[in-house]
Amino acid sequence: MRSSRRHKSATLRVIPLKWPVLFFLCIAILALSAAPAERHLSVYSTAANYSVPLERLDGRDYVGLFELLDPLGTVSVRSDPPRWRIHYNNVLAEFVVGKSRARIQGRDADLTGRFLLDSGRGLVPVDSLSSILTRFLGGPATLHEASGRLFIGSIATHFTATVSPSDPSRLIFHFTAPVNPSVATEPGKLHLTFRHEPVTAPASPRLTFNSKSISSAEYSEGDGAAEITVSSAIPLIANFSPDGRTITLSPAKSQMAANSAQTSIPAPGHAPEPATPSAATLPTETRPVQPATQPSLPPVASIPRKYFAVVDASHGGLDHGEALSPTLAEKDVTVAIARRLRQELESRGISTLVLRDSDANLSLDDRAFYANNTHAAVYIALHAASNGQGVRLYTAMLPYAMGDDQGPFRLWGDAQSPAIPLSRATAVSVASELKKLQVPVRTLTAPLRPLNNVLTAAIAVEVAPPASDVSALTAPDYQQLIAGAVANGIVDIRSQLGAVP
Amino acid sequence: MIPRHFYIAASVMLAAVLGMTIYAWRMRGRVAATPATSSDTRPVVAPVSGPTEQVTLFVAYDDLGILRPQAARIPLPSVRQQRAEELLRALIALYLDKTSPHPIPVGSDIRSVYLVDPGLAVIDINAAFADGHRSGVLSEELTVASLLQTLSANIPGILKAKILVEGQPRETLAGHVDLSGFFDVTAVHQLTSELETQQ
Fold first, then answer.
1. Using the beta-carbon criterion (under 8 Å), do B181 and A399 form an inter-chain contact?
2. In whole angstroms, what is the distance from residue A228 CA to residue A231 CA?
C-alpha cells in the first residue's frame, strides 16, 4: 500500500516533463527535415560493395578519394598543403589543391574540376572517377553518374524476367548472382530496390508481358540504387529462392498454395533450372514487404553446376576482333549478342553465365578456365564477321597430339577430345533451329581456341550479316533471331548435355 | 712564299670535293625516287625455270566461303624442300593477283618451308602476310587450310605442320585461327572436305 502510493507520486512528478520533451523533439525533427539529405555514391567491386558520401562543392559532386580507395586495398595519405599525396597499393598519386591536373604514377591526369582539400580529406570530382580510377586500379571503372553508382572491374548482376507459362499471374526474376532487395508495394505496383547489388539494366529497360495480371516491369536507377517496378492488376507478393537468385512474384491470395507445393530436387548431373516453372516449386522464402538478411531455408541438395551454359563474348578490351566497319568492332557485336542469348536461354530455363559482359580483356586461357571451373554443360563462344552470310557453327579441330593424358590430368591442347561428339551434336541441334528460320548456316571444325581447351560440349557461333549490309549485325531483330534460334537449339539437346557430368 | 705546286694540288682537291658533293646529291635524289622495299612485290628468290609439273592447289573462294582443288602447271625444282616453297609461292601468287578469289595483303610471301622428318612441315610466312590478313574465323581458316592442304596433297609424308611468322611462333593468324599448336594433317583433310561444300 505504501509502495503503491510512492509509485503514484513519482508518476505525477514525471507528467509535467512531457511537454518540454515533446517541444524539443519537434524542434529536432524540424531541424533534421530542413537539412539537405545526405547523398551517397554506391560502389560495387569484387572486393566489397559499399557507399561513400558525396559532397556538393563548386556546383559539382565531389567524393573523398581515401574513403573510395580504402576498402579496395592498402591506402596511405600524406597531406602537405597545397600538395596531397595518396599511395594506393603500388600506385603513387599527387594532387595540388585548386588544380585540375594531378600526377598518377608519374603521368599527368586531368580532373574535370579543381582538387579540393577539406579537413585533410582530398576531394575529387565524381565525374573524374572513371578516368583516374582506371589509373589507380589498372582496370575499368564504369560510373553511372546520374544514379550515383560506380562499377569497378567487370562486375554486374543481370536479370531476366519471364511470366510462368503454367501460371501467367506469376512473374519469375532470375539474377546472375544472389540479390537481397527491399520490397515495397503500392496500389498497382511492386518495387524491388537493390542498394547493395550491382544490378544492371536489361537490353530494354521496359519489359512487357503477355499477362492480364502483370503488364510490365521497368528498370530504373537513382540515388545509388537500382529499382525494378512491376505494374500489376492484382496485389503481388515476393518469394525468394534459397540461393537468392530467383524472385517469384505471385498473387497474394495464391501464396498458401505456392508454399504447399512439392519440393523439386534436381537429379544428380542435371543443372538447376531456377527460372523454369518447376523451379518455382523449389522451397522459397516469402517476403511480403521487407526481406530478411539471410535465407531462412537451407539448400535442399548439393548443386553440381552453377550454370548450365557459359556464353563467351569473344575479344574485348584492346582485342577488338575484326573491324566490321570503320565504326563497328567485332567485340561490341559479340557482347550485344551474348546478352541477348543469355536472356533467351534463361527465359527457357537455362541458367547462363556470360563470361565477358563489359569491355574487359580476357585471355583465351582464362576463358577456358572459367568455362571448366563452372562445370557448365555447354560452352558457346560468339564471334561476328563481315564476310559471307548467316551463321557458321564451329566445333574444335584438335591439334596434333604431342603426348598422352597422364592419369587424371588431360592435355590442355586437346582437353575437348572426349566431348567432341557432344559438341558436334550441339552444333547440329543449333543448326537445325537456324535452318527452321531460313538463316543460312554451316557447321565446320576450326582450330579456334579456346574450344579445344574446354572439357564440356563447346561450340563457336560466328554471326555474319543476313545480306551484304554489315550494319545489320547490330540490328536488334537480327541479333534476337539468332539468339533465339541458338537458345532453342540448346534447349532441344538439353537432356543430352545435362546427362554428362 | 707558298710553292706553286701546292696551289695546284689544293685546287684539284677542292674540285674533287665539289664534284663528289654534286654526285652524292644526285644519287640521293635517285634513291628517294625508288619505291620502298616493303611494297616491292617481286619475288625474293630467282624464279625457277625448267620443266613444269602438274600440281593441285587448294584455292579459297571468299564469296562462297569454300576451298576448291585447282590443277596448275608450275616449274618445280627437284629438292623436296624447295618444291614445297615453290608450291606455296604459286598459291600466294594466285592470291596476290588482281582477280584473286581470296585476297591477301600486298607483300605477303612464304619465307621458307622446312621439312623435318618424320613428317613435320614448318611453314614460315612473312609479317606482311599475317599482320595485314583479314580477320575472321572463316577467312583465316580458308587461308590456313589452303596452305596446309596444298602442301600435304603435293608433298607426301607430311603428318603434322606448324606455321611461324617471321620465324617466330604466333598465337593466331589475325585474331582467330590458332597457330600456337601443330596442325594434324588428318584433321586438315577433314576440314578441307568440309570447306569444299557450302552445305
1. yes
2. 10
Question: How far is residue A384 from each of residues A328, A430, B61, measured CA to CA in Å?
Answer: 11, 17, 19
Q: Find the DSSP H helices in A217-363.
A: 255-259, 330-347
Helices (H) and strands (E) in chain A, counts: 10, 30
DSSP B182: P
Confidence of residue A281 (pLDDT cuts 50, 70, 90): very low
Phi, psi values for residue A397, rounded to 5°: -100, 110
Question: What's the mean pLDDT in A183-210?
Answer: 84
Tell me the domains of chain A and their CATH numbers: 40-144 (3.30.457.10), 159-287 (2.60.40), 309-399+409-498 (3.40.630.40)
d(CA A215, CA A218): 10
Contact B154, B197 (CB under 8 A): no
CB < 8 Å to B199, chain A: 441-443
Question: What is the bridge-based pairing of β-strands A225-232 and A214-222?
Answer: antiparallel
Cα separation, B31 vs A389, whole angstroms: 47
User: Could you check whether the bond before residue A205 is cis, i.e. omega within 30 degrees of 0?
Assistant: no
Q: Which residues of B fall within a CB distance of 8 Å from A403?
A: none
Rounded to the nearest angstrom, the minimum Cα separation between B143 and chain A is 12
Any idea which residue has 532453342 for its cell?
A488
SS3 content of chain B, % helix, strand, coil (to 5): 40, 25, 35
Distance CA B188, CA B190 (A): 5
Closest CA to A229 of A192, A182, A184: A192
Residue-level pLDDT at A391: 95
Q: What is the mean pLDDT of residues A159-183?
A: 84
Residue B71: CB atoms within 10 A of its CB come to: 8
- From the list A388, A413, A446, the residue facing B181 with the nearest CB is A413
Distance (Å, whole) CA A329 – CA A315? 10
Other CB atoms within a 10 A radius of the CB of residue B39 amount to 9
- Nearest to residue A457, comparing CAs of A409, A430, A410, A421? A421
What tens digit of pLDDT does each residue of A444-463 get? 999 999 999 999 999 999 99
User: How far is residue A402's CA from residue A415's CA, in Å, rounded to a whole number?
Assistant: 13
Q: Do A399 and B184 make contact, defined as CB atoms within 8 angstroms?
A: yes
Q: Residue B185, Cβ neighbours under 10 Å: how many?
A: 21
Contacts of B97 (CB under 8 A, 6+ apart): none
> Do A399 and B183 make contact, defined as CB atoms within 8 angstroms?
yes
DSSP A25-93: HHHHHHHHHHSPPPPEEEEE-SS-EEEEEEEEETTEEEEEHHHHHGGGS-EEEEEETTEEEEEETTEEE
- Regions of chain B with pLDDT less than 50: 35-39
Contacts of A322 in chain B (CB under 8 A): 134-136, 175
Q: Which three cell numbers stand for residue A213?
A: 495480371
For residues B157 and A13, give the distance between their C-alpha atoms in angstroms, rounded to a whole number: 111
pTM for this entry:
0.55
Averaged pLDDT for residues A311-317: 90
